[in-house]
Amino acid sequence: MSGVRRTRHRSPTDTATRAWAFRDRSGGGPVSDRPSKPQPTREGQPADEAEQAEGGVPPGRVEPGGGGKPGGRGAPGATGKLGGEGEQEDAVATHYDSDWGAPLPDGGPSFEHLRGEPPARIRVATLWSVLATGVLSMLLLGDGVALNLLIIAIPAALGAFFAAQAAGRRPRPWTVAWAVGGLVLLLVPALRDADLPSFLAVVSALALGSLALHGSRTWPGVLLGPFGVFTSLLTGLSWGWRGLRDRTGGSRGNLGSVVRVAVVTAGLLLVFGALFASADAAFADVLGDLMPDVSVADGPWRLLLLALGVVGALAAAHTAAAPLHWDRIEVAPGRARGRVEWALPLIVLNVLFAAFNAVQLAVLFGGYDAVLKKTGLTYAAYARRGFWQLLIATLLTLLVIVFALRWAPRGTPGDRGLVRGVLGTLCVLTLVVVASAVRRMDMYVEAYGLTRLRISVVAVELWLGLVILLIMAAGVWGAGRLPRVVAASAAAGVLAFGLLSPDGLIAERNVQRYEDTGKFDLEYARGLSADAVPALDQLEEPLRSCVLQSIAEDLRDGDGPWYATSWSQARARRILDDRPLTDNWETCNQIRQDLMYR
């Protein structure tokens, strides 16, 4: 093997042991007499998946078998495709070494190999942004979750931007999309009162923010990037302390002057603000609405919120300045299988899917009555049993597609055409299964009404169908952007789920069902959030008051400041103020008993 590059120095004994493996033959140049054990290759990897999303190998990438060093054994960016000629030679050389029992290089990138250059010294603008984040966290958190999260996130995002700018990182389109998407997701708790949409939106916003800080684009990067900011909690704190000490000259006098300026500024605002508030009642009302109600008893809790805000902002800024390069994690491709070994199980599975879908179409056009009479199931039981099985079938199909792509034969155009044909057919048939599952849940909702669980699982099923469509598109236009597009679709689904207001949809659907059938789940409706008040307000008295009593009590107990009050809560209070509730417990008990027997 001429031209095989070595990754490390050999000892004299090692060199002598290997010298016999290279000898000249009558045909010409040196050849390798290594063992006949098959060597790993990448011949089954298509060009559209071999190339990176932005084209070419990113600088500093850890090549397989590269001892964990960025850039592999050759010059950085020497090849624009995974599995290029130089990389194949390196893989063979590393495997050749392992056959002969020599000490191997580092077995892949460790956590330290994912780190890039150390961050530059923290900027003054970043320090001010971190301080603003901590102060706002201390003042605005603790009374609830609404618009305050977005207010706190803005200075934290600015601090990360200043830190990335100091490190020479320029924002790319996907980075801007992740950052803007994370901020937009924080509008959900500002608009909605329900816990589930707000929780999903906050978690998704944190994940998108972390992706914006890391700039990941591969599957390992997209899956691990959302957790990367947590690795900077301690390092970010020490980085910020060193920067503050350097900015103040490392002396207590300079640091004390900064503290004195802050204390004097706060004192002036406090004194003159109190004077103006006592002089004018209108100004006092405005100031009282804007300023949070902070008592001395809340001191320890507020200090903890201050610390959490500072640590979180420093972690975000440190990640922006020196992110972990999750894209350096290489996933070894699977060994390509033969056509028959790979395609036969999938073709049989396609036949099974086609048979099931044919039965579904026959039932759809032939009516459900014959099926129910033959099976002995009720209308709702038939729908409920079918949905969960079809949801699991959709999830398993995605796993089958993932493993099928890993072991797919792609050495020739015929192989690639076979892969597209078989997997494309499976995706199309799976979309029919998704439609059947959604239809079954719609049947169940018609019988028993809409709930949070039912609307949530339907949303998940629809998103899985979207992922299958994206996989089909990737088979035509390439899979380079598929990881980021799938992550973006999940974030968009969470945003749509929150903006559509699940509790509002549940209330509207159940009110309509009550008007059509006279059936209504009173106890479940009483447990909805303030998002459902506009729809429940359409009910006739005394049912309206019986349903809204519990929600009204929650609104009275949770009356917080403006920054901790969602738009749905404010709207619900206006509706209840315009039409006060009637309190008649005996009437509500009678209505509850009447509804139970319908």
UniProtKB/TrEMBL annotation:
Keyword Transmembrane in annotation: yes
Region annotated Disordered, chain positions: 1-90
Keywords assigned by UniProt, alphabetized: Membrane, Transmembrane, Transmembrane helix
Biased composition (Basic residues): 1-10
InterPro entries listed in its UniProt record: DUF4153
Transmembrane segments: 122-141, 147-167, 174-191, 197-215, 222-241, 261-283, 303-322, 342-365, 386-405, 417-438, 458-479, 485-506
Entry keyword annotation includes Transmembrane helix: yes
Pfam families, per the entry: DUF4153
Compositionally biased region (Gly residues): 63-85
The protein, known as: DUF4173 domain-containing protein
